[in-house]
Amino acid sequence: MAESKDKVIFSAMQVTGKLHLGNYEGALRNWVRLQDEYELYAGIVDLHSLTTTFRDTSELRANIRDAALDYLAAGLDPEKTAIVVQSWVPAHSELHVLLSMITPLGWLERVPTYKEKREQLHIANPSYGLLGYPVLMAADILVYRATDVPVGRDQVAHLELTREIARRFNHLYGETFPEPQALLNEFAVLPGLDNRKMSKSYGNCIYLSDSEEEVRKKVRSMFTDPEKIRKNDPGHPAQCPVQAYHAAYDAEGAAEAAPACEAGTLGCVAHKQQVADLMVQRLTPLWERRAAWAAKPAEVDEVLAEGARRARAKTEETMEMVWRAMKLR
Ligand code: TRP
Fold it and tell me: Which of 30, 166, 184, 226 is most enclosed, with most CB atoms within 10 A?
């Protein structure tokens, strides 16, 4: 059982909506690989979603269930992995309060994502919670005494802050937390349908819950080289999202496709067909698992309830150590 492993992972995603291919290739797929080796907690961090989505919270609960289905569809095995809804496990919030006392404001004001979010989302009056986002993330990780955290490049600054907070706590109150290591996922970032970054806010995503028909239609609509109009026009595969997907799914095939595209012997329509086939192949097992879980919603509820039970047991143990270290127990 997972409980006996000495390496512990906590990782998580926000629940701002359905998960897309980038979430799968960049994170979920990696977690599935890691779940045999590690005691793995896969978080659905609804409190983090509140840092930006606090006015209209009506969709959060449905999003949690969608995320859980996506996690299960991706192949997280609830026998091995605890799927944890953050707000169901009070220790995340408890530790967050305690860590917020020892985290200097200056550290938080320097975090690049704080400025980025304020600008992108036009937030004129940032909340205390938004500034504290990385402290909550540190609490998520440290409350499991996680040793490793799989993250993408965009989260490295957050993880560095987690390590600093852990060091500061250990220095002030005695050795309590391991300093968690980043397990960097070097997977090339998948572009969106329009060749920008894949992001829900751009409406350019392929979702894990899309049907085969939707996937094929989306691939057909994918951006391609505007200078390659006929098949025999020379293409520029290095800048083409179709080629990027091909490379992600089948490196050898992609290495053959690139010169053919450049030479004008491979046209965009045929290339898209190849890539759609590869994508469908990759996603078919996910669709099958998703359908199986979607047909038994009570069992999905049970998976989340069991994940929360395991998470509470683990995190209450940590909190006991924390209260003692701080001489409050
Ligand atoms: N900040 C992460 C993101 O936006 C989500 C997250 C919250 C997380 N808590 C975490 C990731 C703990 C890893 C570990 O992707």
Answer: 166
